[in-house]
Design brief:
The protein starts with a strand and ends in an 8-residue tail after the last helix. The chain has helices at about 30-40, 55-65, 85-100, 115-125, 140-145, 170-175, 195, 200-210, 210-220, 235-240, 250-255, 275-280; strands at about 5, 15, 20, 45, 70-75, 105-110, 130-135, 155-160, 180-185, 225. The chain is an alpha/beta fold. The protein binds NADPH dihydro-nicotinamide-adenine-dinucleotide phosphate (NDP).
Amino acid sequence: MTIPTFKLNDGNEIPSFGFGTFQIPADGSTYQAVKEALAAGYRHIDTAVAYFNEQEVGQAIKDSGIPRDQIWVTSKLWLQDFAYADAKQAIDLSLQKLGLDYVDLYLIHQPYGKVADAWRAMEEAQQAGKIRSIGVSNMTPKIWQKFVPNFDVVPAVNQVEFNPYFQQKGIRQIMAKDGVALEAWAPLGQGNADLLKEPVLTKMAEKYGKNAGQIILRFEHQEGVIVFPKSVHEDRIKGNQDIFDFELNSAEMDQLRALDKGKGMHDPDAPGVEEMLSKYDVHVND
Ligand code: NDP
């Protein structure tokens, strides 16, 4: 099976479908899950310094024997490392943990504090060939306007919470002006049972011989959104990517667009979020 790619605004081609690794522990589970995903045909892995599992992601990639240039690897810089010199060091540490010479995409994980410094370090790492594409995450319209107009390089992506219940209409309009791709975190609503049981999804699932998760992921794909659902179960890892042999029609797309509640689980603009995230130490084990 060939996974389609989307072209980013910097010219790079990103596999539109990948594998997420948030909340998979580094006790062998990440290694096992990534190994299964790669064996099932995934060629895009999303990790982060803050997931503490880069090492296992890298080992699974290495042991797969798949040529490096056939796998898209994303990692993310944590806000504790946003000062310019710290960011440079953190990028090198990420590469070291992953056992890679470069990452395909590196993101500002949480957009608070010394974002401008961090971005400059990432632009330089891109020029040095350590990162192919650079992007941001969790940027709302308000946060975007605060930082992005001052960047030299426009982000290639913004990775935000996105699923049928939260379709991010506001930020998508802003991003569209610069051709910035949207990457979905929680593309399945982190397994939200209400979402997966929506009658409209059940009906479409019956029609196409798919499950609710596959309908959601297909909808997101047709919306031009890059997805990387996470699972530690081999049947789901295999099943989630089985979405490229059917197409939702425009009436069905509209029905799914109508599920939007305009609100997600996480509000990056909420008071106290920056303070809470700033307490998180990603170097506790270094
Ligand atoms: P997802 O929407 O991918 O949901 C994952 C959850 O859904 C898991 O509990 C999984 O359980 C379950 N699940 C997986 N497949 C199915 C299925 N077919 N039917 C029902 N349940 C299913 O949430 P994530 O938060 O993991 O988001 C995806 C990725 O996005 C992350 O892994 C991470 O890489 C990234 N991310 C980025 C963030 C950011 O701030 N930039 C924040 C959060 C995530 P099980 O494993 O038991 O199968």
